[in-house]
Structure formats: structure tokens, C-alpha cells
Write a structure and sequence with these properties.
Order of helices and strands of chain A: EEHEHEHEHEHEEEHHHHHHHEEH
Oligomer: homodimer
Largest interface: A-B, 40 and 40 residues
Structural class of chain A: alpha/beta
CATH architecture of the largest domain in chain A: Up-down Bundle
Largest sheet of chain A: 7 strands, mixed
Strand order of the largest sheet of chain A: 1-2-9-6-5-3-4
CATH superfamily of the largest domain in chain A: Dehydroquinate synthase-like - alpha domain
Number of helices of chain A: 13
CATH topology of the largest domain in chain A: Dehydroquinate synthase-like, alpha domain
Chain lengths: ~375, ~375
């Protein structure tokens, strides 16, 4: 039997465990012990389902299981897809004691979680993330939602899962580009709170790219531990602490929206966004040029884009960033770096300096 | 200045006041003291807005106010309308510190509350109910949502308002049929927990129908007090206590869905549903025929329908009731009466007896 690592997200009555281990998605007991009713609905997509649905179902061996298979892609993270899920849940007479199981990456997790938040005003759900990005980030913390043509994740809810089952074995079938996109968020944890982890990543990036078992397990654990701590301190993103997890995201969302969803992967946009945040922090005199270089080099070593896409003007960037959820009373708020391992949230943003920083970055080759 | 009655819904950090009084929707300070950001969006419909929007806006005198006017009717309590609201909020660059103000009846309150629950994962909202039904029931307690073709309120969230402003003056423009529909819920509170209030209603129904000020204020206060207590004891409908508020609703929802939304008003369907629940309770030997008659007579004196619509067969009733949110692990759960003033939730429902009870009620003239 595989060893299962267990971490807990401490949220009082909404606390839940994160299980990490190879081959654990077929361990039905994990799912069974976290689904109070007898109806289960697995929601997956047409890429992941052929790979892992059978193992998952075999493990459960339950009477009432429905499956809903969605098309693959961020463009389906929409209200229309949500309606499709509601139609199927109602047609299958799913009651309030149903448990929804998200089997897939961040898109499946976010939309399944949001469906669970809204179906009959809230039902149970379990995250079974199958991408690195989802395992270290989106499956933990209860943020759920869908996109709107005018902005990413604009419609959603905080709805905590009953548990997260992160099977590291699923990473073997992950396209290299998506593995790298997940590593962007792993690097993020080092940058915002954990300098030793950042230094560890500098040394171990080649091992992570080869999915060396001990290294990848350690990176996932360390990432989830960091995320769980931040979420426990600020579940609903009210104190500003949780907003630190958005390092690179305000820039990144602008890239994703500006280029059209799906052109860049979320992690790719965040990687570039973190370099932009580091560069802007340097222009403010908070960190040095050498540190910006370290950030950029580590991300590049993870095969991530670190250059600002030339298609987007600084004007367009600022316009898109003004739509960001972190805008408060009309003021743009950004997560920036005081050091590697120390991020802060600020609403004192010099827009002229930001504009010139973006312009110059976009001109760099 | 009008006297304002204040009740509190005790929900820890989510506690909020209910203000009751004549002409209070124009008192801007109530709204201002409960909206933390500077952006306000009033959501109303094309029937209510011409009557009360101007007074409300005049009271606020705020810089950034948007208004969204929806068409009137339960058929617009849909995901499509929700999308329309999201489009307008995003186009107006509303950020996470926006406060949505629901000015209207239950449909406006439910859909505005759900929009507030989901917009950017949750923003503030204020209920300004303008129907009796909304003032005594739907605006209090945080249930929000929209309908689905396969069932009422199937998609939604628990999202508590920042405050409720119940202006009794708005009832003067309420169509008589809607006043009666609101009285159905008032009677419900007497039936489920408060026999003295039921007896008071038997004596004072004519005064309520004439909107005699002291009587109507007392009825609203007493109803809100009952609702606030039940909600405080069981915010998320988990312990079964809150489910008592659904007396008559499982039958009522079947009527509404079966006849098509909007044919009967919600309160009318609930009135008939309460008579059905009382009759079924009598068949179980829990209450006597005289008590059923008292229930039916009080509701009839409020000009409410107490006869089962002949268009719906008992088979169709049971089919629709099986879709109810109170179904748990495949078992129908019903709120029934042990006495006037004492409701209980049971999942021990004899479907054969229920079928014959409905069949016989439908044959009664």
C-alpha cells in the first residue's frame, strides 16, 4: 500500500484533510469516509476521464454513482457549463445529500466546487486534482467559480471541500507545459513566505521536471502546507493575508484576459506576472536587480515564459488590471515583493511608474 | 420622524438588524450605515421602481449609484436574469466592496441576494422588501437563489444581508392578492411555533386585510421575531429546526411547479399546502378534524385558496414532491402538525396514505 501524507486545513467546523500519495485516487475509503450521503456524482472532462475515471469508480464500488463528462478547456469554465451540470443533477434526482467529486485540473475543480456551492444552496464535494497546478493551488482553500467574458473567476463562491485527494501518479500523464505551469505556483509559495523553499527549488528544479518521486512529493506538501496556513488565517480573503497568494495574478489575469483565455496557461501567465511584480518592486527600490534576476531565472528553468507578451500595450494592461477583484474603492491593489520570501499587499500604486515599467518590460527582448 | 422598530437576527459575525416602520425606505442613514464601500447598486423591477426608487435614491444622496431594473415576475427568477445582472455589474466596474440593494418583493430579494453571494465570490447586500411576503419571510434569513425548470429555488446560496429595511408604507400599493399571499406566511408562524399568535390572527384578520397600522406592524414584528429565532438556531438548515419554516412548502412547491410558475402566487400555494399538511396530520391521528378546519378557515378568511387544484393528480404531486430539497437519502421529508403552534419534521411518510389523502382532497368541492 502506498504511503499517504495527510495535512489539515484548519477552518474550525469546515476543516478538512489533504491526502497526498501515489495511486491514492483508487482508494475508495478516502472518498467513502468523506461523503455522508449515498449519491455520488463524479464530474470530469473528456481528457482526464479516460485516464482515471475507471480506477476511481472501481475503488468506490457504490450503488448510486453518476458521471458527468465535460469538454476540456478553460473556455468551458462558464455559466453555460454550470447550467449543464445543474440540468444533469436535477434530471438524476440528486438531493441535498449528494457529494460531487471533481476529477481533473483547476477548471474541473473550480466549476464542480461552484456547482456544489449553489446546487440546492450547497452540497458536499471532494477534490481529486490531477494536475500539479490543481494539487498545489486551486483544489485547496475553497475558492470556486466560473469566468465571465469581462473577467476571470468573476462569478463564484467560497465553498470548502470535504477533502482533497492529490494522487501524484496522475502527474505522469500531464503534458510538460502543464507541469511547468504548476511549478509556477510552487515557486510562488517560496517567493511569498518561504525563502528556504525558494532556495531548495533553485537546486531541485531539474528533479521536479523529471518527476523524481521524493522531490515532487516534498514540493507538493510544502506548497499545500503554505497554502493551508494562509487560508486558515484568512478564509474569505478579508484581512489581506490571503491576497498574498495572488502574487503575479493581477498581471497574470490581465495577460490571460487580454490574449484570450487559453492562449497562455494560467501558470504561465502567473510566472510572467511574478516577474512583472518583481520588476515593479525593484523600481520601487524594495528589492534589487539581482533578486529580480533570480526570480526570472528560476521560472525560466521551470520552462516558463518570463517575457511580457508584446501584443498587450501598457494601456491595455492597466485597463484589464482595473477590473481585478483586488481593486478596492477604485484603488488598484498589488502584491509585491519586499524580499524573496516576503510578499506584501499594497494599495499605494504609482500608476505612472507602473505604466512605464510595463512599457519597458514589453520592449525587452 | 417615524418610529423604527428594530429586531436582530443573531448569527455571530453575520448578525444583522431588521428595521420595521412606515416610510423608512427613504431614511438614507439606514442604508449608509450598512454599506461599507462607496459603490451602491439598486436592483428593482419595473413595477416597484416607479413607486419607490426615487424616495430611496433621494435618501441616499451617494456619489456612485447604479440601478438595474428587471422585468417583473417569477419567470425572471432565472439564471438568465442573473447573467444580465453580472453583465451590468462588470460593465459598471463594480468591485468587491459594492453593496447591492434589493428593492422589491421576494423574487428581487432572492435574485439580488444570490447575485451578491456569487459576484466576485460574495459582496454586501441590503434587503428593502416591498411586499408583505418578503417582509415577513424571504428577506430574512439569508436564503437566496433562482429557479430551474425542474424545480423552484434549486440553485442558490445562504448569504445573509447586512440589514433588512421593511417599510410598512409600501404595503398600501400592494395588490390585494399579494397581501393575502403574505398573510399565508404570517399564519404559518402561528401554526409552527406560536399558538397565541394564531389565536390573535383569528381575531385580527379583518384588521390586517385593511392594513390597520398597529395590527400590521405587530404581525410583521411577530413574524420576523419567529423567523429570526429559527434562523439563529439553524442558519444552514442542518439541524431540522429551520426546515419547520417549510410547513406547507413541499406541497406548495409541487403546486407551483405543477401548474407552472406564476399561475398561483407562492403564498397561495403555501396556504393550500398548509391545509394539505394539516389534513395529512389529521389522517395520521396527530391533530383533530376541528383543528384542520380552524387552519382552513383562518386561511380562507385571509382570502387564500384552501382547495387542492384539480389539474394535479396525486401521482404528479408525489413525483414533484420527490424533487423537493428536503428529500434526504431518497426519503421524502415533510413538516407536519402535532398541534396548532407545534410543527415537526418527519421522514417517516406513508406514501400510500399520502397518495390517498391527496386524491380525496382533490375530489372535495
Amino acid at each position: 500500500m502506498t504511503e499517504v501524507q495527510t495535512l489539515t486545513v484548519n477552518l474550525g467546523s469546515r476543516s478538512y484533510p489533504i491526502y497526498i500519495g501515489e495511486g491514492i485516487l483508487g482508494q475508495g475509503k478516502l472518498i467513502k469516509s468523506h461523503s455522508p450521503g449515498r449519491q455520488l456524482v463524479v464530474i470530469s472532462n473528456e481528457v482526464v476521464a479516460p485516464l482515471y475515471l475507471e480506477s476511481l469508480l472501481k475503488g468506490i464500488n457504490q450503488a448510486e454513482i453518476e458521471t458527468i463528462i465535460l469538454p476540456d478547456g478553460e473556455q468551458y469554465k462558464s455559466i453555460a457549463t454550470l447550467e449543464n451540470i445543474f440540468d444533469q443533477l436535477l434530471s438524476a434526482h440528486c438531493s441535498r445529500d449528494v457529494t460531487l467529486i471533481a476529477l481533473g485540473g483547476g477548471v474541473i475543480g473550480d466549476i464542480t466546487g461552484f456547482a456544489a456551492a449553489c446546487y440546492q444552496r450547497g452540497v458536499n464535494f471532494i477534490q481529486v486534482p490531477t494536475t500539479l497546478l490543481a494539487q498545489v493551488d486551486s483544489s485547496v482553500g475553497g475558492k470556486t467559480g466560473v469566468n465571465h467574458p469581462l473577467g476571470k473567476n468573476m462569478i463564484g463562491a467560497f465553498h470548502q471541500p470535504n477533502c482533497v485527494i492529490a494522487d501524484t501518479g496522475t502527474l505522469k500523464t500531464l503534458p510538460p507545459r502543464e507541469l511547468s505551469a504548476g511549478l509556477a505556483e510552487v515557486v510562488k509559495y517560496g517567493l511569498i513566505t518561504d525563502q528556504p523553499f525558494f532556495l531548495w527549488l533553485e537546486k531541485n528544479m531539474p528533479r521536479l521536471l523529471k518527476l523524481e518521486p521524493d522531490s515532487i512529493t516534498y514540493a507538493i506538501e510544502q506548497s499545500c502546507r503554505c497554502k493551508a496556513q494562509v487560508v486558515a488565517a484568512d478564509e474569505l480573503e478579508q484581512s489581506g493575508q490571503r491576497a498574498l497568494l495572488n502574487l503575479g495574478h493581477t498581471f497574470g489575469h490581465a495577460i490571460e484576459t487580454g490574449l484570450g483565455y487559453g492562449k497562455w496557461l494560467h501558470g504561465e501567465a502567473v510566472a510572467c506576472g511574478m516577474v512583472m511584480a518583481a520588476e515593479f518592486s525593484a523600481r520601487l527600490g524594495w528589492i534589487g536587480a539581482a533578486q529580480v534576476k533570480k526570480v526570472s531565472a528560476l521560472l525560466a528553468s521551470a520552462r516558463l515564459p518570463v517575457k511580457v507578451p508584446k501584443e498587450l500595450s501598457a494601456d491595455r494592461f492597466l485597463e484589464l488590471m482595473a477590473l481585478d477583484k483586488k481593486v478596492k474603492d477604485g484603488k488598484l491593489r498589488l502584491v509585491l515583493l519586499k524580499d524573496i520570501g516576503k510578499a506584501i499587499l499594497t494599495d499605494d500604486v504609482d500608476l505612472t511608474l507602473l505604466h512605464s515599467t510595463i512599457t519597458e518590460l514589453a520592449q525587452t527582448d
